[in-house]
Amino acid sequence: MRKATAIELDDAQRKKLMGLAHSNTTEVRLARRAGIVLLAADGFDTHEIGEMLGVGRVQAGRWRALYVTGGFKAIARADREFQNARDAIARRAHRCRTGPARWRTHVLDRAAGAAQNAARRDQQTAR
Fold this sequence. Notes:
The structure is a single chain. The mean pLDDT is about 75. The longest helix is centred in the middle third of the chain and has 40 residues, at about 55-95. Helix 2 packs antiparallel against helix 3 (about 45-55). This protein has one domain (about 10-125). The chain is about 70% helix and about 0% strand. The protein is mostly helical. The chain is elongated. The termini are far apart. The chain has helices at about 10-20, 30-40, 45-55, 55-95, 105-110, 115-125.
């Protein structure tokens, strides 16, 4: 069995993550990520973190690994990049709406730089 990477936080990092995890105004996704990192720093393994927070072990492991490689900016930046891609898809879809909403996913992918699956989900929800 693989051993998860240990996370060590200094007091400033821990304080910042605690503030995010317990804030009422922080996005739920970012608060959950902060909670994952805090529990990982406290020595819990990925399975335990998943059970405690109600997320899958894969998701907990990915955010843990992302924090190890990129720090706080990596877990905070993920939302902005995803949101920018979604906004670009929405703008492109709005311009394409002449008649029935039938968009080609590869066109949306190229325009937004988004993953093909995200474009398909947006296309299906617009129907």
